[in-house]
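Feature request, filed as a ticket because there's no other form

It would be nice if the structure record came with a short human-readable summary line next to the tokens. Right now we just get the raw output. Example of a typical job, pasted below so the devs can see what we mean:
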Amino acid sequence: MQNDVFKKLALIFCGAVKAPLICLFLTLCFLVVGQSSVIAAESVAYQNWIVDITNNTTEAHTANDSGSSFGLFCSRDSCLFYVHQNFDCKPGEKYSALVNSGAVSGPVSVECAKINGNIFQILVPFNLVLEASKNAEVIGFAFPLSNGTFTVARFSLAGSAEAMKRTLIEAAKAHQPAAPAPSEPPVSPPGSKGLKDIVI
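Raw output as currently delivered:
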């Protein structure tokens, strides 16, 4: 029954905002976190960025003219940066890319993840991407292609500082003390950073 309610809510929400990335992450988090009785969603715009808030997740994201998106996604007590684009890589594949925002430039590690049929590039190290997202107008990523060339994705950072700050604040609010420790510690998603370790 709860699955049917979630599906209806997700379809209504997705139809209203026309953002398939949000729908993918809502579905993923539903599967990871488990069934929840109520999913409350709120979207707030900060210039070129959107913050989506639910009971279990927060996400700040932007899109460029080619339909690619860049964002910060937080679930429970960890966060990660991602890029989503029409990009051919194999899930689990790791490779190097470059980030440049004028404020910071450097190499990043990328891990491809397939979520509901779509490829996402998880960006590591978290702190380098966070620093590159501060005090700049645009951020760009250069991803290597199998034919020896590169594809470049650029994103506006107008509103990103406020959007990311709101995402981290909402994620911290939603974080509740964990239940007694299980026999094995939970595995954090690759590229994620604990909320308590993120400094803006």
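Something like this underneath would help us a lot:
The CA atoms of residues 76 and 175 lie 6 Å apart.
The first helix runs from residue 2 to 17.
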